[in-house]
Design goal:
Blueprint lengths: L42 E5 L6 E2 L9 E3 L2 E2 L23 H5 E5 L2 H9 L9 E3 L10 H4 L1 H11 L4 E5 L8 H9 L3 E6 L5 H7 L6 H13 L4 E8 L8 H11 L3 E6 L6 H12 L4 H11 L18 H16 L2 H4 L20
Parallel strand pairs: 1-5, 3-6, 6-7, 7-8, 8-9, 9-10
Antiparallel strand pairs: 2-3, 4-5
Length: 352
């Protein structure tokens, strides 16, 4: 089985059918030679959103609310579990997800409006639950920085998950938030291999750039951890201990990991990627994924979807636990965000 290589700087070469649309367009070779562009440009669609804080009741994640200033993600990670969400906007979870992006231009004003509502109950908000808040288009649109400015002004706690080194641009705000115990940053660290990063996460920051972000944040007093995610059997799982060791040396206070997740359209996209880049081991990788997912490529059950089950998953959990103990990361963890400081500007504070 041969699969096409993606355009330069992109994670996939495919644009699978949007599952919500009845009609399909199929490309056919009509015999006329047409030159295929070597690159695929990025289109940013400006959107006026109706709301900005998303809620969830998942027992698998440590927050009940999040903000995603962008839809789609230019990082182009082939494994991204958020790809299927692009179908809700009449776009493909494939190449569209990483090239046709949506920026919520009124995100900052919406956040102020929602935080100012009477009866709002403060709890940590996560930035980066679905797509990366520090993907490349943030340099121009600066929505994430605007959101952080509001959260600081309102004294509202926030957690950030990113694989973008652009997070260091906002070090001034993060330091102020950290002094008030209002922020924690998690840097996604998937591999230390530059070549693997290039094909797995084509437009994300280089591994050393992410470790530098951990180091700079830690030295500035900003609580920072690493998320070794996803662990892909026979692709990057052999790096797990090394990832934890490098994170610890850079000053990370905590570490966590997740198993590869392949919901909906992500599964065929990942299979295509495997056959394009690792044709000889593709079936072995998929076999190990199925062994960890009850015989399927994906298991959506709460409690097991993040870590998997079975022999391979159990071994991975044991290895990770041992790595944490070896590098004392378990002892360093224990930082709770402070919700008691929340105070919307102009709102009268309690006398008691």
């Amino acid at each position: 089985m041969s699969s096409p290589l993606p355009p330069r700087g992109r994670g996939t070469a495919s644009n699978p059918h949007n599952r919500f649309v009845a009609q399909r367009s199929v490309a056919e070779d009509d015999g006329w030679f047409q030159e295929v562009p070597l690159t695929q440009g990025t289109e940013v669609i400006l959107e006026t959103a109706k709301s900005i804080i998303s809620r969830n009741t998942s027992p698998d994640i440590p927050f009940d609310r999040s903000i995603n200033p962008y839809r789609g993600c230019e990082h182009g990670c082939i494994y991204c579990f958020a790809r299927p969400s692009h179908a809700y906007w009449d776009m493909s979870p494939g190449l569209d997800f990483e090239t046709r992006l949506i920026a919520k231009t009124n995100a900052v004003s919406l956040l102020e409006e929602q935080l100012s509502k009477r009866g709002y109950q403060c709890a940590p908000i996560n930035l980066g639950a679905n797509t990366d808040p520090y993907q490349p288009i943030e340099r121009e649109h600066r929505l994430t920085r605007g959101l952080l400015e509001v959260l600081l002004r309102y004294r509202h706690p926030v957690t950030i998950v990113t694989k973008g080194s652009l997070v260091l641009r906002d070090l001034d705000l993060l330091v102020q938030l950290a002094r008030l115990r209002l922020v924690k940053v998690m840097i996604s660290l998937t591999t230390l291999d530059d070549e693997l990063k290039r094909i797995l996460e084509p437009r994300a920051a280089a591994p050393r750039a992410r470790l530098r972000a951990v180091r700079v944040l830690s030295e500035a007093g900003v609580p920072v951890g690493v998320l070794c995610s996803p662990m892909i059997p026979m692709i990057n799982d052999h790096e797990l201990e090394h990832l934890v060791a490098e994170a610890s040396a850079a000053g990370a206070q905590s570490a966590n990991y997740m198993m590869l997740r392949l919901p909906l359209e992500v599964a065929p996209l990942f299979e295509e990627w495997l056959h394009a880049h690792y044709p000889q081991r593709a079936e072995h990788v998929l076999s190990l994924v199925r062994q960890s997912r009850g015989g399927q490529l994906y298991d959506s059950r709460f409690g097991v979807r993040m870590r998997g089950e079975g022999i391979f998953a159990e071994l991975l959990a044991q290895r990770f636990s041992r790595a944490l103990r070896k590098h004392d990361l378990q002892k360093r963890e224990g930082y709770n965000l402070d919700c008691s400081l929340f105070a919307p500007p102009g709102q009268q504070m309690s006398l008691l």
